[in-house]
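Following the same procedure, sequence and fold were stored together, as reproduced here.

>
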Amino acid sequence: MVSFQAGASVAKQLIPAIGAPGTTALRLGLSAILVVVLQRAWRTVPTRTVWPVILAYGLSLGAMNFVFYFALRSIPLGIAVAIEFVGPLGVAVFASRRRVDYLWVALAAVGLLLLLPIRATENRLDPVGVLCALAAGLGWALYIVYGQRAGRAHGAAASTWGLIVAACLVVPIGIAEAGRVLLTPWIWTFGMAVAVFSSALPYTLEMVALRRLSAKTFGTLMSFEPAIAALAGVAILHEHLMPMQWLAIGFIIVASVGTVSGEH
């Protein structure tokens, strides 16, 4: 989580120079090159029957990253992640049959309402940024659903091919948007940092953690990602949140912990 949010902080600094599409293209394009070489993707080409779910998985991954970086243009990192976190929280609650989960849904809804730009205040969040974060949450939910199906259909190699599909979707858009600026050496240096810290390193550590932790423990720990994102925003990007925004992030974290802690 620390690695991923450090990568997101670097990505946010790239956005003013090459735009959200260019930043997404660099991250997914370079990440795809890394995994193709390291995982030898040509040895695990999906069969014709598997391709539909791999495509759905890859498209959801690409769309999720695309709109998330658009959200980072105008709202703080911690708030963007907290709003986006509603996606996986919704998946967990939808799959549950426990009545207590309605309490966690209500708590998450309160946190979300505190973040939404409903009131015309001085610290009101950008509506477009909030909508993009909500769209990223929907993309994350679809990513989880189709990722599980792709994993069952194609094993561990599904993540590699999903990333390739996502890159094929986003890279042409990013090149068309940013143009020759993408060839600047310092852009590539920052882009490689984003690719490593936001994809290659955290996904590798995730696989190590999943082999040593129960799904319940893993999910509980992952619930703290909005807080880590907010702290990364403060430490790296010098973003300062209002007390009410910290409270809203706390509500969403508690709702997430409550939901996954009851799973078996």
In short: The chain has one domain: 2-261. DSSP finds eleven helices and no strands in the chain.
